[in-house]
UniProtKB/TrEMBL annotation:
Gene3D superfamilies: YVTN repeat-like/Quinoprotein amine dehydrogenase. GO terms for biological process: vesicle-mediated transport. Residues 26-35 have a biased composition (Low complexity). It comes from Neovison vison. It holds the Pfam family WD40_2. GO terms for molecular function: JUN kinase binding; kinesin binding; MAP-kinase scaffold activity; signaling receptor complex adaptor activity. GO terms for cellular component: cytoplasm. This is Sperm-associated antigen 9.
Length: 306
């Protein structure tokens, strides 16, 4: 629950935030039409270094959006007062609230990014910043966090000199023009694969640069939807498509296609399937199997071999 003054502040900041549908689907309808209207004067792929919050509205610690209720905090104080080593406990709790320890990252549609402790006092927000567009995906690889935005950029965060996460000093990596959403990300070995329109971009997080890009599907109007990595293979799903495409994690070579439509038809029966087409809506690798969720409500579990 937010206090009234916080709600009022949010309503002012978020006045121009698009609806959920606009944030996730707006670029899809005209993906093909904007292809020919690229502004030649615009620079290509670039890296921008940002030293401050681009919108200048970083939420201070005392106005963090999550509050501990007064009853909880009073009970916490009472509990401390009866314990012998009060100062030691307070110091220990303070150390637990440092982002040096494990954290949980949360991205919102309005562009707000929140970092919470995953050790103690989970309600309290450790760090927060407002980015310039909706946050669609967050991945962590070897001490670096990449945040995918709806405007086609990646925000790359590092720890500061004190070892805590520094949200005010980050890099922006632009995946190209015209701008479309970065739909999905997957950590593949020490790199990050990003689904952007019909392409897969392979980003080297440490160097903060794009190492490779390739078409995920022969159709230009296609859009990458999900990525799942296992071993030396990366499975890619395409929006409104029933076929999974497998790529080599190192050579980026297309290895295999798997159409799941026959399996869904066999399970539901062609009569029940009717005119609705099979599309992949979820993808995950677990227990050496590829789990595929479909828009028809059918889950398919595919065993993987070496």
């Amino acid at each position: 629950e937010k206090p009234p003054e916080k709600e009022a502040e949010n309503s002012e900041v978020d006045e121009n935030v698009p609806t959920a549908e606009e944030a996730t689907e707006a670029t899809e309808g005209n993906a093909g039409s904007t292809e020919d209207t690229v502004d030649i004067s615009q620079p290509g792929v670039y890296t921008e270094h940002v030293f401050t919050d681009p919108l200048g509205v970083q939420i201070p610690e005392d106005l963090s959006p999550v509050y501990q209720s007064s009853n909880d905090s009073d009970a916490y104080k009472d509990q401390l007062s009866v314990l012998p080593n009060e100062q030691d406990l307070v110091r220990e709790e303070a150390q637990k609230m440092s982002s040096l320890l494990p954290t949980m990252w949360l991205g919102a549609q309005n562009g707000c990014l929140y970092v919470h402790s995953s050790v103690a006092q989970w309600r309290k927000c450790l760090h927060s910043i407002k980015l310039k567009d909706s946050i669609l995906s967050i991945v962590h690889v070897k001490g670096i966090v990449l945040v995918a935005l709806a405007d086609g950029t990646l925000a790359i965060f590092h720890r500061g000199v004190d070892g805590q996460w520094d949200l005010s000093n980050y890099h922006l990596l632009d995946l190209g023009r015209p701008h479309h959403s970065v739909r999905c990300m997957a950590v593949v070995h020490d790199k990050v694969w990003c689904g952007y329109r019909n392409k897969v971009y392979v980003v080297q997080p440490k160097a903060m640069k794009i190492e490779k890009s390739f078409d995920a599907h022969p159709r230009k109007e296609s859009q990458v939807r999900q990525l799942a990595w296992v071993g030396d293979g990366v499975w890619v799903s395409i929006r409104l498509d029933s076929t999974l495409r497998l790529y080599h994690a190192h050579t980026y070579q297309h290895l295999q296609d798997v159409d799941i439509e026959p399996y869904v038809s066999k399970m539901l029966g062609t009569g029940k399937l009717g005119f609705s087409f099979v599309r992949i809506t979820a993808l995950m690798v677990s227990c050496n199997r590829l789990w595929v969720g479909t828009g028809n409500g059918v889950i398919i579990s595919i065993p993987l071999t070496e």
